[in-house]
């Protein structure tokens, strides 16, 4: 029956309250006047009775619900009138109507929207309640009663309005634009007393029956409906919204101003967060353009009469869509209720910035519990100015404080009853008539209904600007209670009690009015009262002291506002009470959000810290409680930077400064555990995540409370002094006064810096504590566990949205250990996420932080007193909705301290700006350059800094992009003006680029040469931030739009970037900062990411080349065997390319995949072309080298053709002779010794007989040839003999001092001759260090060239000739003579003798081995003698009477044994090399890994001679190291991996032979021996070299199965022998594993550093355009460097020198020095090196210098003394530490 009752109720109420527009318009004002004057008593009485009925009905209505609440003054635009009209007697009709209406009211469902009395902010329409003639009413009511019993009820109900319709809701003044009228008609006789009593009693009875449960159910249904509309209930049913939900990159907001209803809440919040005050005015997008417009049923067929009737009709049903719109304040409050306390706080803070009223008292939508959201006000700061003397501008003082602490007068506005004047609009006219601080009925988006604002009290503050036209002279709070104050008793009591002035709006001042009791109570109060009566037209009247009355009728709004301002000024100028937000905690009967336990826990923890700081001078807090970041940290930073600018005795000075750094760290460790830090970190560790957030907020709040007053006074002093300085400067006053004022300003600046105190300083202290303990390098006390957790704590905070300091702006330094550990912890928690780095640069106070906060919802500090100092970073997550559009997971925003900051006035400003700009530009993928104003000329200095920073990035191969942002542009719509501005900016940037190019020695004519930049798309103009003059001006909506457009530009550019992993970002920070520590950034920059990536690429390159080489070795082996077997007579390059094609294509595919799919592909791209070319060149060279080798084999084979032709003859004759001899001696077959004797006796005869007509090849005598050659050169025998006897020549390359080898030429300059003589006397040497090095280089060059020449001679194919050595000797003489011609000395004969003998000695082994090969292949006697054993075995076998098959099988087995050993050894050599290349640590990496293991090996040996050999001949020593390691590996793995390889290859060859035997036997069952041998040999030609197999004496063989068995029987012991082969013999064969690895690993760069002789570690031999480099250099003493014209050893490291301010002589005879910082200009051998400044040093080389100090002094003849003394700190390093340091050095 519920729906039936609802229909009846609607119908009856419609009949009672039908709005007759025609009659109403004529009688509105008349009826009101009659009522006021009391002219028509009967009508008045009638009205009174009807009013009683209405009041009784209202009393039954549900308090607070929309249906039943009495709507108030801000909802109606018209007047509330009661109009009387003449009529006849209508007692009966009145009674029926009243009863029907009463029934309808009693059946009304609580919570419905039909009968709601609208409140002041909800509607813009009119509402009239009228009484019509009795006849009509009787008829209508009767119809209503009859309808209850009819079947058409449902149809009638459906035709009625839905809840919330216009007809059934009683409107009030803030929600409607029409008039609220109750119209009664005068009648003559109307006895109604009994009816009134009946109605009253009936209503009381009905009210008592309405249950609280039903009312709550109704309210809950309304709330759910609203939340459902806004899509808040489903999404956040379990969890409230938090800042994290909005601190993320979401899909770009559409610039259209309307939105769908479901997106209202989120659109509101997003716009609010970017300071768009239009967030409160978001129109809802209609599904149909005609929505909200009702249509006539027969529009097309209507005649004029119908149109007129329709025009005047009031019964036509209208569209409901407008009524169903969500009220803007419902959106605001719905979001407020569904947000957690932190999002509420952000939301209220943003509303305050938008100059909107804020909720002070909020009833719960369901329970109606009253809450004061005090927490949400905690971040609001208000600033205002007070003019003490009216006409004196200098008397203005400024106040800035948290609004919660501000004690201000408060003016409360209350409405008692219903009236037409908009209370909210009146309040706005008092505060800011250009901005709707309080929402009212005429605001855009206002609707006729709202649900969440009744009983809400809002508050706003007026802040004066210190100007004469200020509305009020001091900060004043204004409070507005929404709805009828009569219905919100608790709120009314609180506000009237707390207010300084109460302003009450009433419809009429009559004792009979329901507001009379409240007004009487207010009159009795001591609080000033102003009564505004809508029904009076009287002027302002002072009723009594502090009590005023003013009529509103027939007054304009400006008139009312002006008079009201006057009264308020008068009251507030006298004594008055003050209001403070924090006092709300003392109010009973309400809930304060800060009383929640979680908030209280955070507050209590913060209070402990606050208590420590109470009563202290704010400027001394940091010194007392944060000692690590003050003077100690600043001093540490200063000394650290000085390490890069050393002079004098560098190593000693460096040692002292490093000691000072350690002492400071020790002091920090001692002072690190302050009470404040202990309490702070304990709270972070113990509190839950939510409690922790409260704790941090409260801590900042308490800190701000301490600093507010002090900072305000300091800032005011700064402002005054700065103005005075500017005045004097403009007057060109250079007097003492100007200087004094400047000094005074500097002192204030320092004081301001000391007084600036916030959470960031506590985090900074955590970082310093961590760095101090971390630098100790060992576990210390139990407190260690605390500081070790600091990075994790900070990481949690950073992930949760807190900003973290990246660069300390006070000390001007980056705490690298802290930042690295912090980011490591972030990586642990999030993974190595990719980030897009967005950095911002600009002049101080140009709005950078404000822009970022509005753009991303961040919370960077923006107040003028606490501008960001340094650089701060904050993570912003990319939301899942748009994750697929980006290739990174977060945007990391870096906000910076303003460039050209006034606080940093002085000479350091420019350097500081350069440092900061270069740092953040280098870090960012995109840099926003923020310019305040339209004229870039004002930022010329800063632009130059920024352009120079971009130029530096280009030179170090970093390529950030940039966008210029012009803020505070007055007219951003003027396209022509903007084009002109862009042109000026382009010109200025080009000009700056030219200037920067000169500074950086770079070619650049315009800015686009430096960075990719399009002035049309990369320049954005921003509107002014404020729409008017602060402090009461709201933000400019154009600014918000500009922020959104810029955000879209940023996201568009970001979508094209891959970002960077956090681990790489960490390395980038270190690289940039380490480079910035030096003056020459470009030369100092070491890109760790590039280094790591390049080293990985080198390893991969090694793998690619090894794959090609190993496959080519297999191909070479096969072809070599084929050539030896006569299968190939020539090898073409095309054949080799074909063999390598598949492998090469696989490598190219792998390379493409590596460069295109690697996570570091954006770094790798710079080397792709070069490495693809290198692989191609390597492949070509490899093919050519193998062809050369195989051509030599073919040439050698051709040279041996005559010999090969005779071999068959020799074989047959030897076989025949052996057979004949065996036949003769068959009786002595058992006497082995006799057989041997007989065979030996005839063997020589056989050889002589066979080779009688052939000339034998003689052995060579190299020593005799050498002597003859030296004699021919005129060198005396005694000199040669002495050198040979002493062995002096063998050590010529390792001599430390070559002074004994030279004779100085006579000086033409007597002075220089004297200097040299003096130096020789002092040092005991006549050669400078540079000369020594040049002589050593000469020896190495001559040796290498001569060896190469010798190896190019065809010794193996044509034999040895003494002319080869003659050429070598002459070449040595020539080189020495050329060298002497350019020097001031000549060499003694001893040097020439030793050098020639040294080269002869190095060439001897090659010549001997090559000639032996030639003789073996071409000398018949040698060949025959090599066959002696083989034919003795044949002879012995014949003697034993073995058959031909057995003997033939033994012959084949012998040939198989030799070839099998060779094949197995060659294959094993390749396999061992492969195994070591892949598994052995020293060989499986890049050139750098090999270097590390070489150095480890040297340290373990502690052999000084080995060190010297490595230092002076690094390549030779590395080759020796490889040979030694291969030999050790083989010996170590002889029973392991190597044996397995050997057995595997033996098995392969054995299986190959067995298969060949089977194939040959099967195919030649009916063939002869020749056919069998041919088949057998063919099967093995690819793998084995069998040589000549003579069949002449075995053609009688018929059973090849027997031959097969004999060979297999003989094969078994052969394979066992090969399996037991000593692997040390591997090197005796053509392929040796050590040589294979040497070819692979030593084909790299061997250039040495011109200062310390460190070897370039690039894996490519020619790696141009990359310069030579090495991770860590050495002390100059390692190679014997000494100070010029002294015997003092040079102990410094070149990496330290290039960071110092010292100079050096490029050559020993140079007259001018070159600064170390400009070493690349010193000549060719310097310019190709990249020596990165680094104050650290490798412990390995310091250990070496200390360990072999004596040996070094003896070897080089210089001393570690005076300023070459070894610093004491270097002597503490052990060998273990030295070896360990190698791992640390090469772990990148």
TrEMBL record:
This is Interferon-induced very large GTPase 1-like isoform X4. The gene is LOC114439931. GO terms for cellular component: cytoplasm; nucleus. Its main location: cytoplasm. PROSITE patterns: G_VLIG (PS51717). InterPro entries: G_VLIG_dom, GVIN1_dom, P-loop_NTPase, URGCP. Belongs to the TRAFAC class dynamin-like GTPase superfamily. Very large inducible GTPase (VLIG) family. Keywords: Coiled coil, Cytoplasm, GTP-binding, Nucleotide-binding, Nucleus. It is found in: Cytoplasm; Nucleus. It comes from Parambassis ranga. GO terms for molecular function: GTP binding. Residues 22-220 are annotated as: Disordered.
């Amino acid at each position: 029956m519920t729906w039936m009752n609802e229909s009846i109720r609607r119908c009856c109420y419609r009949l009672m309250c039908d709005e007759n527009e025609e009659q109403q318009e004529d009688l509105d004002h008349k009826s009101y006047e009659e009522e006021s004057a009391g002219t028509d008593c009967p009508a008045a009485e009638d009205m009174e009775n009807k009013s009683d009925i209405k009041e009784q009905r209202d009393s039954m209505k549900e308090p607070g619900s929309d249906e039943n609440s009495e709507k108030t003054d801000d909802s109606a635009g018209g007047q509330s009138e009661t109009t009387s009209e003449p009529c006849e007697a209508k007692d009966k009709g009145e009674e029926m109507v009243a009863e029907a209406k009463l029934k309808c009211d009693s059946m009304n469902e609580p919570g419905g929207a039909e009968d709601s009395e609208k409140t002041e902010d909800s509607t813009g329409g009119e509402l009239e309640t009228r009484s019509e003639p009795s006849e009509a009413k009787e008829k209508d009511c009767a119809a209503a009663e009859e309808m209850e019993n009819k079947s058409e009820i449902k149809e009638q109900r459906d035709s009625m309005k839905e809840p919330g319709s216009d007809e059934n809701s009683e409107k009030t003044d803030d929600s409607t634009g029409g008039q609220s009228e109750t119209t009664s008609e005068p009648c003559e006789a109307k006895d109604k007393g009994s009816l009134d009593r009946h109605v009253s009693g009936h209503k009381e009875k009905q009210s008592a029956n309405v249950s609280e449960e039903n009312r709550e159910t109704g309210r809950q249904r309304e709330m759910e409906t609203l939340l459902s509309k806004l899509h808040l209930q489903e999404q956040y049913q379990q969890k409230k919204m938090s800042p994290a939900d909005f601190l993320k990159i979401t899909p770009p907001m559409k610039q259209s101003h309307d939105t769908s209803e479901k997106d209202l809440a989120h659109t509101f919040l997003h716009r609010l967060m970017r300071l768009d005050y239009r967030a409160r005015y978001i129109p809802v997008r209609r599904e149909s353009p005609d929505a909200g417009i009702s249509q006539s049923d027969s529009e097309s067929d209507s005649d004029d009469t119908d149109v007129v009737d329709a025009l005047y009709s009031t019964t036509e049903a209208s569209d409901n869509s407008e009524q169903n719109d969500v009220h803007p304040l419902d959106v605001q409050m719905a979001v407020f209720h569904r947000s957690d306390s932190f999002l509420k706080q952000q939301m209220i803070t943003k509303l305050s910035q938008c100059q909107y009223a804020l909720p002070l008292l909020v009833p719960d939508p369901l329970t109606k519990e009253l809450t004061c959201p005090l927490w949400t006000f905690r971040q609001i700061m208000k600033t205002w100015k007070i003019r003490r003397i009216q006409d004196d501008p200098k008397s203005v003082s400024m106040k800035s404080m948290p609004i919660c602490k501000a004690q201000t007068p408060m003016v409360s506005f209350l409405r008692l009853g219903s009236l037409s004047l908009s209370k909210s609009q009146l309040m706005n006219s008092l505060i800011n008539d250009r901005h709707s601080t309080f929402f009212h009925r005429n605001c855009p988006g206002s609707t006729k209904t709202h649900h969440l604002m009744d009983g809400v009290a809002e508050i706003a503050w007026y802040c004066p600007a210190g100007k004469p036209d200020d509305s009020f002279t001091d900060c004043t709070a204004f409070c507005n209670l929404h709805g009828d104050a009569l219905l919100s008793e608790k709120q009314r009591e609180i506000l009237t009690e707390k207010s300084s002035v109460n302003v009450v709006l009433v419809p009429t001042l009559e004792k009979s009015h329901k507001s009379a009791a409240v007004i009487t109570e207010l009159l009795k109060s001591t609080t000033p009262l102003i009564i505004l009566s809508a029904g009076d037209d009287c002027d302002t009247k002072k009723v009594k002291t502090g009590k005023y009355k003013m009529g509103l009728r027939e007054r304009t709004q400006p008139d009312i506002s002006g008079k009201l301002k006057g009264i308020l000024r008068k009251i507030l100028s006298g004594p008055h009470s003050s209001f403070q937000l924090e006092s709300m905690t003392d109010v009973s009967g309400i809930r304060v959000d800060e009383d929640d336990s979680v908030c209280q826990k955070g507050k209590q923890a913060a209070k402990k810290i606050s208590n420590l700081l109470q009563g202290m001078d704010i400027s001394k807090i940091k010194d007392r409680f944060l000692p690590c970041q003050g003077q100690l940290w600043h001093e540490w930073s200063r000394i650290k930077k000085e390490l890069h600018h050393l002079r004098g005795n560098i190593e000693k000075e460096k040692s002292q400064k490093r000691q000072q750094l350690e002492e400071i760290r020790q002091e920090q460790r001692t002072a690190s555990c302050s009470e404040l830090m202990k309490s702070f970190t304990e709270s972070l560790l113990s509190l839950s995540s939510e409690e922790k957030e409260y704790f941090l907020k409260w801590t900042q709040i308490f800190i701000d409370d301490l600093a507010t007053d002090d900072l305000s006074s300091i800032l005011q002093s700064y402002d005054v002094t700065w103005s005075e300085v500017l005045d004097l400067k403009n007057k060109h006053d250079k007097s003492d006064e100007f200087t004094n004022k400047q000094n005074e300003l500097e002192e204030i600046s320092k004081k301001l810096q000391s007084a600036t105190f916030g959470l960031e300083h506590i985090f900074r202290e955590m970082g310093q504590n961590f760095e101090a303990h971390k630098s100790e390098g060992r576990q210390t006390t139990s407190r260690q566990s605390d500081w070790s957790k600091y990075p994790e704590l900070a990481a949690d905070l950073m992930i949760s949205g807190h900003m973290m300091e990246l660069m300390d702006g006070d000390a001007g330094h980056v705490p690298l250990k802290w930042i690295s550990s912090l980011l490591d912890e972030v990586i642990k928690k999030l993974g190595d996420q990719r980030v897009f780095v967005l950095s911002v640069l600009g002049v101080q106070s140009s709005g950078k932080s404000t822009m970022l906060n509005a753009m991303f919802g961040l919370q960077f500090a923006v107040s003028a007193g606490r501008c960001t100092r340094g650089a701060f970073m904050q993570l912003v997550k990319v939301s899942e909705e748009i994750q697929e559009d980006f290739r990174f997971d977060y945007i990391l925003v870096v906000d910076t301290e303003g460039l050209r900051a006034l606080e940093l006035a002085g000479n350091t400003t420019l350097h500081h700006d350069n440092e900061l700009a270069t740092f953040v530009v280098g870090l960012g993928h995109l840099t926003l350059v923020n310019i305040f104003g339209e004229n870039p000329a004002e930022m010329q200095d800063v632009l130059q800094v920024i352009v120079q920073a971009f130029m530096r990035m280009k030179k170090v191969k970093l390529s950030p992009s940039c966008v210029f942002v012009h803020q505070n542009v007055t007219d951003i719509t003027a396209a022509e003006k903007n084009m002109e501005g862009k042109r000026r900016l382009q010109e200025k940037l080009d000009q700056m680029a030219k200037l920067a190019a000169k500074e950086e020695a770079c070619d650049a004519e315009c800015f686009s040469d430096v960075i990719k930049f399009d002035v049309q798309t990369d320049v954005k103009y921003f509107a002014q931030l404020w729409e008017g003059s602060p402090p009461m001006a709201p933000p400019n909506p154009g600014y918000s739009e500009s922020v959104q457009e810029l955000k879209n530009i940023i996201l568009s550019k970001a979508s094209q970037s891959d970002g960077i992993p956090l681990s790489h970002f960490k390395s980038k920070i270190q690289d940039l900062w380490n480079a910035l520590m030096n003056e020459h950034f470009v030369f100092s920059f070491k890109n760790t990411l590039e280094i790591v990536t390049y080293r990985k690429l080198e390893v991969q390159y090694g793998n690619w080349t090894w794959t090609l080489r190993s496959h080519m070795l297999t191909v070479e082996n096969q072809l070599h065997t084929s050539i030896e077997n006569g299968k190939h007579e020539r090898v073409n390059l095309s054949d080799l390319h074909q063999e390598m094609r598949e492998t090469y294509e696989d490598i190219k595919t792998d390379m493409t995949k590596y460069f295109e799919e690697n996570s570091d592909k954006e770094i790798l791209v710079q080397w792709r072309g070069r490495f693809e070319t290198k692989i191609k060149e390597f492949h070509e060279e490899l093919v050519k080298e193998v062809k050369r080798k195989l051509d030599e084999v073919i040439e050698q084979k051709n040279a041996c053709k005559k010999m090969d032709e005779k071999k068959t003859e020799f074989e047959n004759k030897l076989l025949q002779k052996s057979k004949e001899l065996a036949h003769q001696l068959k009786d002595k077959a058992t006497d082995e010794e006799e057989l041997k004797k007989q065979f030996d006796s005839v063997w020589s005869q056989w050889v002589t007989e066979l080779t009688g007509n052939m000339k034998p090849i003689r052995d060579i005598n190299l020593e005799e040839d050498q002597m003859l050659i030296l004699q021919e050169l005129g060198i005396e025998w005694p000199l040669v003999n002495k050198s040979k006897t002493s062995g002096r020549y063998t050590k010529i390359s390792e001599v430390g001092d070559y002074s004994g080898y030279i004779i100085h030429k006579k000086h033409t300059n007597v002075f220089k001759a004297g200097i040299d003589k003096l130096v020789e006397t002092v040092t005991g040497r006549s050669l400078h260090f540079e000369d020594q090095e040049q002589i050593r280089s000469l020896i190495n060059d001559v040796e290498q060239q001569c060896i190469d020449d010798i190896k190019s001679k065809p010794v193996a194919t044509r034999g040895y000739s003494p002319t080869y050595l003659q050429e070598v000797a002459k070449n040595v003489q020539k080189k020495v003579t050329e060298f002497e011609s350019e020097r001031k000395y000549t060499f003694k004969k001893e040097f020439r003798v030793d050098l020639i003998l040294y080269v002869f000695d190095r060439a001897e082994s090659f010549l001997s081995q090559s000639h032996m090969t030639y003789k073996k292949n071409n000398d018949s006697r040698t060949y025959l003698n090599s066959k002696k054993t083989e034919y003795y075995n044949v002879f012995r076998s014949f003697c034993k009477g073995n058959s031909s098959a057995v003997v033939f099988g033994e012959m084949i087995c012998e040939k198989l044994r030799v070839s099998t050993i060779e094949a197995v050894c060659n294959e094993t050599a390749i396999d061992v090399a492969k195994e070591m290349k892949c598994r052995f640590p020293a060989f499986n990496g890049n050139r750098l890994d090999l270097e590390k293991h070489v150095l480890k090996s040297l340290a373990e040996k502690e052999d000084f001679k080995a060190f010297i050999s490595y230092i002076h001949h690094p390549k030779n020593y590395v080759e020796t190291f490889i040979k030694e390691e291969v030999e050790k590996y083989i010996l170590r793995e002889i029973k392991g991996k190597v044996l397995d390889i050997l057995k595997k290859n033996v098995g392969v060859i054995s299986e190959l032979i067995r298969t060949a035997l089977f194939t040959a036997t099967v195919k030649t069952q009916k063939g002869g021996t020749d056919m069998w041998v041919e088949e057998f040999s063919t099967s093995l030609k690819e793998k084995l070299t069998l040589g000549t197999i003579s069949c002449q004496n075995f053609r009688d063989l018929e059973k090849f199965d027997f031959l097969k068995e004999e060979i297999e029987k003989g094969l078994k012991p052969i394979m066992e022998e090969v399996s037991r082969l000593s692997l040390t013999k591997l090197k005796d064969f053509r392929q040796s594993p050590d040589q294979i690895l040497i070819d692979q690993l030593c084909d790299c760069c061997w250039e040495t550093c011109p200062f310390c002789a460190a070897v370039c570690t690039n894996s490519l031999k020619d790696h141009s355009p990359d310069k030579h480099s090495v991770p860590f250099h050495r002390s100059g003493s390692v190679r014997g460097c000494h100070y010029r014209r002294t015997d003092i050893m040079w102990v410094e490291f070149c990496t330290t020198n290039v960071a110092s301010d010292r100079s050096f002589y490029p050559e020993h005879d140079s007259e001018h020095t070159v600064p170390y910082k400009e070493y690349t200009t010193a000549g060719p051998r310097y310019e190709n090196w990249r020596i990165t400044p680094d104050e650290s040093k490798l412990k390995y080389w310091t250990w070496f210098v200390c360990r072999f100090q004596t040996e070094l002094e003896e070897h080089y003849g210089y001393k570690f003394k005076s300023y070459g003394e070894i610093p004491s700190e270097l002597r503490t390093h052990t060998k273990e530490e030295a070896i360990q340091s190698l791992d640390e050095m090469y772990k990148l």
